[in-house]
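task queued by scheduler; priority normal; single chain, no ligands, no partner chains; default sampling; output format set to structure tokens
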Amino acid sequence: MPPLDNGLFAGQRGGYGSSPSTGVPRRDQKKLMPVEELKDIVRRELAQAIGAENGQLANERMQAMTYYQGGEFADPPPGQNRSKVVMLTVLETVEWVLPALLRIFTASDTIAELAPIRTTMTPPPTPPGAPPPLDPEEAARQATEYVNHVFNVDNPGFLILHDWFKDGLLQKLGWLKRWWSEEQIRETNTFTGLTADEYQAKLQDRGPDASATVEILEETSYPAPTLSGMGEDAPNPLAAAGLGTGPQPPQGAAFAPAGGVAAALPGAPPPRPMLYDCKLRVTRKQGRIMIRNVPPEEVLFSRRATRDNIPFLCHRQPETRTQLLQQGYDEECLDRISWSDSEDYNSERLQRYAPDDDMPSTNDRTDKPMRMIWVEENYIQADYDGDGLAELLKVTTVDNAAVILTKNGKPDIEEVDEVPFNFLCPVPMPHKLVGMSVADLVMDLQRIKSTLIRQMLDNLYLTNNPRHLVVEAAATDETYDDLLTSRPGGLVRVRSADGVTPLLTPFVAEKAQGLVEYMDQTAEVRTGISRHNQGLDPDALNKTATGVSLIQQAAAQRVELIARIYAFSVERMVRGVLGLIRKHAQQERIIRVSGGPLQTDPAQWKNDMTVSVNVGLGTGNRDQILSHLMALLNLQQQIVTAQGGLAGPLVYAKNVYDTVAKISTNAGFKSNFAVTDPTVPPPPSVTGPPAPPKPDPQAAQMQAMAQMEMQLQQQKAQTDGQLNQQKAAHQQQLSQQKAQQEMAINVQQAEHQRGLDAEKLRQQFALAQQKAQNDLEIERVRAANDLEIERLKAQNAAELEMHRASLQAATAPPESF
């Protein structure tokens, strides 16, 4: 089975039977595979898939991310006071390769060109009533502009390429997903001061596709405020200006009162116009082509996968319960899902967010509508319809295929024609999907180089702060403390001068510099990133410019090889976007290009239009391209001189125009203003003065209508002037009233503040008096306590003396007579 353009796999169709009435193939519902059997197949594929957590591929990607971030490693573990420096070889290599690749693909605004392949086959006849198909060249040009607009304008094209390329350089495989998204967009807007016509226009606005629904959340109506100096029943100039809801002149009738505004309002005054404040919720469907990067840890694929065929692929991504309900999944099915946050703590996700302080948990919301559910979008080949041939199916499951989500009570099992994923690998391996990353080429060099630099620093530390030999007989109690406290000019106290001698460590760090240089050369050979590409080498001053140029070209070959490999993946991505446009974006659309607006209609493109995608339009140095173009322009000038003009047969005006246009594009200008395309007719100002207009029989009528319109404009200007004057007077009166009110408020605040200050002083005086009384009482009590303590001490002393005398009398020996 040959692969499709996406480079992954495609299902085979068949076994449907046909309807006797229409002849359209239909599926026989009796032959469908049981859902439980399909669920078991998906579950077994998930259990054996590559890329799962704690697998070999996941651990290698996590190790590469650790090296890129400069995470500390130890082999052997460094001891106390030992260097822990980590050289960022992986980061330097990835960040130097990435700009070169992005320059190749983004130096031009056109990431790819689609050109038709000419055939000698006669095109099929156009059906009656259908528009004729576009010329293949014009269709290819429109497709080129449309695809590049979708990639660069509808989606952040540069950032997509940056993340896609970087994932491949760092984590072996970079994944990209593209799909047609139809989402329900809900917008809540608040409007104030709307007239009746404006309010009705907001309610009837259904969007460009007339599919939006408008819901009124809040609504308030009120009469328009009267102007200053006019009564309730006075004529309102706003109503005279056409803002009211009263009777209006019939459409097409001339409105030119002879007496100005007053004459336009005869009889009773019209009612005041109504204004509306409202809050509206607009719900509409939005369809667009989405292109997004996919984290590598979210993609699982079969162990049998190759670059041309992936029997099984799963995209595991977090989505909220609200998002799943908006996508049409049944609420009863979502209620049966057990909620857990174990997927949030994937080792690769944690490593990616390791430099951050916050835990990258997606399940920090516990409210039911915002709970995150990890949904598994499985693409698998299986004979679901029982016709004996395996079809490509998309099965949406959760919890390792324990539950298949349902829509309208039916399992979400859909037969698709392709997998909306594209991958790239910078160092592919034949006959397998997973190759090597650029990080894999230099991770061992980073470890070796870090170890060498650590040893060199340790040697330098020991040289500047050597160990010492201490004779115990010459050491004092302070000798060891003085030696452990190392400081410039510090003293070491000993009993004898020769009691402490330094144990010198020879400085051998310069001998390791050659090995470090060898590691750098090895990295240049493996990756193609040379110091000549990163900056001027001091030794290059003694080399010729030609030699340095040859070294740069040889080093750039590896980067160019990676670019050529990436070009195949970008080509498949562009073909996939073109396929989405053909399937879903069939409406006419006007896009903005460098030459102005371009109206595209994908429905007029031929369905069998075969294109070739030319990727890498920005390759090469601009200075080199400019030198080649200038040489070509000089050659054309010589040929034009030899043939005596631009009439051929070798060089025509169009050839010279194309060369100059390429020079302008290479210089970075989006429009060509140097020369004019000879195939385009010149503007009218160049061909001479315009011809006089033909006499129009309705000129008099048109002139009369113009005069009437001028009168209407003058009357409107007069009305606007009066309205502006009245508004200014009303605004001035409001300002005066506001100033008077503020002055009165300030006076009241000052009086209130004075009362508060007086009350505060009274309270402070009362508190001071109470505090003085408390202090006197405390002193009196303290003096009484001191007297009592002194009395008790004297009493205790007397009793102690009496007790001591009695003890002495009792223990004294009896007198002998």
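post-processing summary
- The chain has 20 helices and 18 strands.
- Residues 83 and 454 are 5 Å apart (CA to CA).
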